[in-house]
Amino acid sequence: MTSEGRQEGEEQQSQQPFPAPEPWWAGLGATGGIVLAVLGLAALAWLLLGLPGSQGEVRGIAYQCAKVAAIGLVVAGTTLYARRRDKSGKN
After folding, report:
1. Which of left, alpha, beta for 72 (phi over 0: left; psi -120 to 50: alpha)?
2. What letters, b where the CB count within 10 A reaches 16 and e where it falls short, cover 71-88?
3. pTM, rounded to two decimals
4. pLDDT of residue 27
5. 13 pLDDT band (50/70/90 cuts)?
6. Are 79 and 30 in contact (CB under 8 A)?
7. Residue 46 burial by CB count (10 A; 0-12/13-18/19+): exposed, middle or buried?
8. What pLDDT, on the 0 to 100 scale, is given for residue 22?
9. Residue 2: what pLDDT?
10. Among 69, 10, 81, which Cα is nearest to 35's?
11. DSSP the chain
């Protein structure tokens, strides 16, 4: 094999794109989505009710809790919708 052949092979390998990394919530499924939603909503309620440990900047933390709850709802909803769609397509 010549050095030109090696360079062509190396160029082809370097031109192949890397697979995009999956987000951390990609493999949670319906149960994980429901757990995320419940935890996010519970943390949000804890902050808004002013229970112990909720002093400080509440708005920033509440925003993060709402994001966790929203991700959980989306994950659970899309998973359950996909299951229902698969079941209705098999009949």
Report:
1. alpha
2. bbbebbeebeeeeeeeee
3. 0.66
4. 82
5. low
6. yes
7. middle
8. 82
9. 56
10. 69
11. --HHHHHHHHHHHHHSPPPPPPPTTTT-HHHHHHHHHHHHHHHHHHHHHT-TT--S-HHHHHHHHHHHHHHHHHHHHHHHHHHHHHHHHH-
